[in-house]
Amino acid sequence: MRLAVIPARGGSKRIPRKNIRPFGGKPMIAWSIEAAFQSGCFDQVIVSTDDAEIADVARAHGAAVPFMRPAELSDDHTGTIPVIRHAIDWFQRQGAAPEKVCCIYATAPFVRSEDIRKGLEILGTTDCEYAFSVTSYAFPIQRALRLTAAGRVEMFHPKHFNTRSQDLEEAYHDAGQFYWGQSSAWLAGKPIFSPDAVPVILPRHRVQDIDTPEDWERAEWMFKAMREAGA
Asked: HSE of 119 in the Cβ direction (CA atoms, 13 Å)?
């Protein structure tokens, strides 16, 4: 059994109700649900939520909501792994045994079905525990600056002040879209960012965190531009 779990709690503070707020003509979560179905990878696509309204929207777009997530797994400090582990535990108690499980974030309107399929292929053809989306930083992190208490700047790595950008190692970060994992790895609480994970590399123009109103506005611009360009 292959399972998609879309976590979507109701308590977002910086962008209230962001999981179901309209984006590109649909509730935000609908884009993740549709990508999961279009990938053809899953026996079940479910939403893990503590919120009745989110559950109704999820069902309206075809996802199942077989349980309501308990309050102790729905606060600001709950990580992804415990939420996915809870979903796997629930299915196991029903007599089902998910073998491969993909967490797809509810606020990932740029997620694509072909990338989800690529993650599954990697998970099935390597000995990795996880396969997840990443993208590269637009600027060398070795030349990053910090602000001091005095309001001045200093380099994190001063030795690279005169190093050419093209001579610095490229760095990557989590794209915040999807995380394939072996069920055993989720249940064991193994860290996703580890040597047991393989990246699915995405282009930077298809990656945008949506945590603040500014993020949301930028994401809408990007989404509109891509749709107009047919990208």
From this structure: 35
Strand partners, 45: 4
pTM for the whole structure:
0.95
Q: How far is CA 29 from CA 21, 95, 163, in A?
A: 8, 28, 43
pLDDT profile of the chain (231 residues), mean per 10: 96 88 97 98 98 98 97 90 97 96 97 98 96 97 97 97 94 98 97 97 95 95 92 78
Beta strands at 100-104 and 130-136: parallel, antiparallel or unpaired: unpaired
Structure tokens at 27: 């509730």
What span, in angstroms and rounded, lies between the C-alpha atoms of 226 and 17?
Answer: 25
Which structure tokens are listed for 41? 């990878």
Q: Report the DSSP pairing between strands 2-7 and 100-104.
A: parallel
> 63 and 45 in contact (C-beta within 8 Å)?
yes
Q: How many Cβ atoms are within 10 Å of 113's Cβ, its own excluded?
A: 15
